[in-house]
């Protein structure tokens, strides 16, 4: 019926509106979306290079999260979607981390302890030590995360933050 269609279209509009409102916005207010985010979190302030990220991490005493991905990789794309839409991840990274996402490999071999696959996520503490002990669930790709591993990633983000507090 026409009435049913009208109700459905209103419901649809509300669903769309609520999902856009629900996006994480930093306390300081909406930031200009960064091209450096490459879609992984437009409200986060992303470092441009590994060197810059290390410098920020050291000087601000915050752990660093490095995310390797490729634009044309379906696994990277799928992870990016759940990663960028997860408020807990976005909030935690915004408040307590330095973040860097890379579509190319660095010369630092510590960032590819078990190979150069994507997507992979590593944590580095402010003493510039790569935390190879914070890993995902796959023994053959220890720093890979799939879309279903988002809760493990959240707990690893918390772990990287706790390590910092414990060691200071």
From TrEMBL:
Belongs to the AGR family. It comes from the Eukaryota. Transmembrane segments: none annotated. Its main location: endoplasmic reticulum. Residues 1-22 form the signal peptide. It is found in: Endoplasmic reticulum; Secreted. This is Anterior gradient protein 2. SUPFAM superfamilies: Thioredoxin-like. Keywords: Endoplasmic reticulum, Secreted, Signal. InterPro entries: AGR/TXD (IPR051099), Thioredoxin-like_sf (IPR036249).
